[in-house]
Design brief:
four-stranded mixed beta sheet; alpha+beta; single chain; 80 residues; 30% helix
């Protein structure tokens, strides 16, 4: 799937992947898609929780290898 921007947060531990995603999503227009790359084991809990709280939609989560994931996140339509 196409994405508008990407954050490579591999090598970063909680809460940095979510904080980087939040900052980048805030700079994107509502409806834009961010690709977030993570390898922090806590990200499988943190990213969905962050998205649910902020109103963003997880379009896809893909395992890249044993520890890394790629997330496609659509920014909330209300611009949060």
């Amino acid at each position: 799937m196409e994405h508008d921007d990407e954050v490579d947060a591999r090598g970063l531990l909680c809460p940095l992947p979510v904080l980087r995603a939040r900052r980048r999503l805030a700079a994107l227009p509502p409806g834009a898609v961010l690709r977030l790359l993570t390898d922090d084991p806590a990200a499988v809990l943190d990213v969905p929780h962050f998205c649910a709280d902020a109103g963003h939609a997880i379009l896809e989560q893909t395992s890249l290898d044993a520890t890394a994931h790629a997330w496609l996140i659509r920014r909330a339509p209300d611009g949060r």
